[in-house]
Amino acid sequence: MTLISQRVALAREGANDKVICRMASGWAVMGDVQFLEGYCLLLPDPVVPSLNDLDPDARATYLLDMTRLGDAVLQATGALRMNYEILGNTEPELHCHLFPRYAHEPEQHRKMPVWFYDWKTAIPYAEETHGALRKKLAQLLEGSA
């Protein structure tokens, strides 16, 4: 079972502590690390290999949920912009990374893809530190449905 499938299974069971909320297309979850506060992902449910494996209606729903989640992150964090990345090269199942980008980022990172950050030393998600933001995102998403 891949990491994406595992995370979705945990979300269904109520055992994924990073879940923001259930959305029409899947699960909004906080990222495992928070080197950029508000980093989150949209995991599809059911899990599929790629965006291209969804029918047109499911694609539209997933992409709308992706932008709704991005809007909520922007509102909750005051970030300058959102970066959306659907890669699937390492984990070959659909998932979208949503990265808020900030003016206070170091100059060498601000204009580069987030993959240039040192992920090994990034701040791990912790409910006591990031839980208020997770809850705020859930409230914003419930209000925009």
Briefly, what is this?
With 145 residues, the protein is of the alpha+beta class.
Describe this entry's structure for a reader:
Residues 6-108 form the HIT domain. This is HIT domain-containing protein. InterPro entries: HIT-like (IPR011146), HIT-like_sf (IPR036265). One of its GO terms (molecular function) is catalytic activity. The protein is an alpha+beta fold. It has a single domain (3-143), classed as HIT-like (HIT family, subunit A, 2-Layer Sandwich). Helices cover 37% and strands 17% of the residues. The chain contains 4 helices and 5 strands, in the order H-E-E-E-H-E-E-H-H. The chain has helices spanning 3-13, 56-77, 107-110, 127-143; strands at residues 19-22, 26-30, 40-44, 81-85, 96-101. Strand 1 and strand 2 (26-30) form a beta hairpin. The protein starts with a helix and ends with a helix.
What is this structure's SSE topology?
Layout: H1 3-13, E1 19-22, E2 26-30, E3 40-44, H2 56-77, E4 81-85, E5 96-101, H3 107-110, H4 127-143
Antiparallel strand pairs: 1-2, 2-3, 3-5, 4-5
